[in-house]
Predict the structure.
Amino acid sequence: MVLVTGAEEIIDERGCELMIVRVNRCSGHCLSFTFPNPITGKTSVHAKCCRMTDTEWVSSN
């Protein structure tokens, strides 16, 4: 099971206004496996991982 979780990050850079932003990230595990492919004679890899499909850019004033 893969979950997308959110966390708050503090941006504290010298000369800039202190800002707290919410960052989404993936947590959990990815289903993946590797096997010798008798058709190609090579190793085949199958993997499914969490990936972001939506993004939102925010600006600060």
